[in-house]
Amino acid sequence: MSHVFPRHCHAQLPTAVGGEGIWLIDSEGRRYLDGSGGAAVSCLGHGDAEVTEAIKAQLDKLAFAHTGFLTSEPAEALADLLIAYAPGELDRVYFVSGGSEATEAAIKLARQYWVEKGQPERSRLIARRQSYHGNTIGALSAGGNEWRRQQFGPLLLDVSHIDPCYEYRDRQEGETPEEYGLRAAEALREEIERVGPETVMAFMAEPVVGATAGALAPAPGYFKRIREICDEYGILLILDEVMCGMGRTGTLFACEQDDVAPDILCIAKGLGAGYQPIGAMLCSAGIYDAIAKGSGFFQHGHTYIGHPVATAAGLAVLRAILDRNLLPQVQSRGATLQKALESRFGQHPNVGDIRGRGLFRGIELVADRETKEPFDPSRKIAARLKKAAFAHGLICYPMSGTIDGRRGDHVLLAPPFIISDEEITLLVDRLDAAMQEVLGQR
Question: In 3D, which of 59, 121, 65 has the Cα closest to residue 95?
Answer without folding.
Answer: 65
